[in-house]
Amino acid sequence: MAVDRLRQDQETPAAGKLLMRQLPFLTIIAALGLLATAASSAQPESAEAADSPSHIALHRSQPPAKLLMPLEGEQAQVVKGLCVEDEKRIAEQLQSVSLHQRLLRVAVGEVEGVKAALVKFQAGDLLTGQFQLAAMETDAAAALATVFSADTDIRHVDVWSVVPSVANAGGQSHRPVFSLSAARSSYLALADSINNDPQAVRRLGVVRYDPLLLCYASDNPSHNSALVPLPPTAYTKALVGYGADWQHILASNGRLPDNASPEPTVRMMLHGTRSRRRVAITIDDGPCPLITPLILQVLNRHQAVANFFVVGEKAEQYPQLLRDIAQAGHLIGNHTYHHRRLSELGIQEIAAELDACQTVVGWLTGEVMRYLRPPGGDYTAEVLRCASARSQIITLWTHNAGDWANPPVSEIVQRCLTGVRPGSIILMHGGDINSVRALPLIIRGLRARGLEPALLSEMHGPNCPELLTLDVALHLPQNGWQPDKAK
Fold first, then answer.
1. pTM of the model
2. Do 402 and 476 reside in the same domain of the chain?
3. Which residues belong to the active site?
4. Which range marks the domain in which residue 285 is found?
C-alpha cells in the first residue's frame, strides 16, 4: 500500500427497526441462551464461568451451521449503489486480495465532497467456516488499506463481519460480531504497524469482539494465554439485552422506588425556550456505520452541534461510533436499548429498556443521559413514571423530517424548515444517506433565518422543560407531539 502517498492528505478535524423490538422478552431469553454462556467465555478472569453448564455446548473450533448460513444469494450485488463507480473500484480491488471471508457489501457515501466508506464481510473462513480473530483482523487491515488508498476524499471507514441473526438464522438479518471504525488520521498513524502485523488494528480505538465470536474463535486469547491478548480498549462485553445482565436489570430496576409518589410529575420538553434564537437538531436511531461518520463530518465542517438519541444495542455493536459522538461534543440521549415501542411494554421491561441503554452509554462514555425520547414518541403512564423516577426529561419534537422513509432531500429540508422558530426541535433519523445530504442545507437554512443549532441543554428556560402531572401529560395532543406553529 502506498502509505507515504496517503500521508500527504490531511484529515478534516474530527468533530430501521431493530429485530429484537418485535420479539417478546421471554422468547428472546429462551432463544438466546447461547449468548449468556458466550458472555462468560469473553472474560479471561472467568474461566470457571466459561465452563458452566449450558443447554448448547460450546464448539470453539467450529460454529454451528446456523451461524454460517449464506446471508446473500450467490449473485447478490456487492455494491450499495450510493457512489457506484467508487464502490465498484473498491470491490474489484478487494476481490483481487486473498480474503478469508466472503465480501458482502461495499458502500461509499459522499456529502459536500467528503466521503466515508463501509466494508462488510460474512464471518467465517471461506473454506472451513471457522471463526478466527486473526483472519478477521487481516481482512479488516486489507479493507482499510484498499479503501484509504483508493480515494483521498474518504475520511472514515467502517469494517464489520456479520453472522445471520441468532433469532432468525434463516433470514437476512445481520448481527455484527466484529466491528471497527477508523478515521483516516488514526489509520495513517498505525499504517506501518498494521502492514507488518494485521493484529495492530486492535489499537484503532474501540474495536468490538462480540462474545459470540469469542466463544467459537480458536485463537481467542481467553482460551490460550500464550496468544497475544486483546487490548484493554477492546469491547468484549456481552450485549446487555441478552442473558444475565438483562435479567439483572429487570430484577433490580424494573420497579419504581418505594418512596415514589403515586401521582408523580414528569418533565417534558415539547420545545425549547423562545427567548433565544436556538433550534435543536435531534438525530434518532444510531449509531450507524457509514451514516453516523458522515453526519459527524458535516457537523464538524459547519461547526454545528446536534443531539443524538441512540439505541443501546447499536451502541454496543459499533462502540467507537458512540465514542466519536461524545468526543465531538454532541449531546447523547436515551432512545431505549432495543427500540421497542414502550407503550406496548410493562413497567419492568420499560425500566430495563431505559437502564440497559444507560448502562451501555455509561460504559463507553461515562455520561448519564438526561433526555429520553420514547421510540415513535409513544408513552404511557408507566413510561412517564419510569422517566420521572430516573430524573429523565421526555423529549419530543416540533418538526418531523419524516426521513426514516428516505424521501427526496428537498422534502426533508422543507419539512424541517417550514415554520421553524426559536425553540423548535427537529426530529431526524440517522439511517439513510438522504438525511445526511439534507443536513447541511438545514443548517444553512437555520442560519439564514438567524437561528443556530444547539444542544437541548442550552434550550432550557421558563417552563422549558415543562413540569406536568401524569394526567396532563397523557392528554397532550397527538400524544405529546405538537406542530410548532406561530401563534
1. 0.86
2. yes
3. 284, 429
4. 252-480
